[in-house]
């Protein structure tokens, strides 16, 4: 089977946490858009680049949470 194919229990246990992470992902997307606009308007603000990188990590959070939970449950 493919990766994580026999681990539905980990997926089901991680689903509520992934939904919470999805909310953080939406917040990260908003922060990323605002940070991108501000960094385009004022390129001297290098701190917004770090903020945009943090926002991208927040956007990827639901996938990381589901992968972590499925890896914790053995086949």
From TrEMBL:
Q: Which InterPro entries does UniProt cross-reference here?
A: TAXIMIN_1/2 (IPR055283)
Keywords for this protein = Membrane, Transmembrane, Transmembrane helix
Bilayer-spanning residue ranges: 12-35
Keyword Transmembrane helix on this protein? yes
Origin superkingdom: Eukaryota
Name it: Uncharacterized protein
């Amino acid at each position: 089977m493919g990766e994580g194919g026999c681990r539905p229990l980990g997926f089901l246990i991680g689903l509520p946490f992934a939904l919470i992470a999805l909310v953080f992902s939406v917040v990260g997307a908003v922060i990323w858009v605002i940070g991108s606009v501000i960094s385009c308007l004022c390129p001297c603000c290098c701190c917004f680049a770090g903020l945009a990188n943090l926002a991208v990590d927040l956007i990827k959070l639901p996938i990381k949470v589901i992968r972590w939970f499925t890896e914790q449950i053995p086949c």
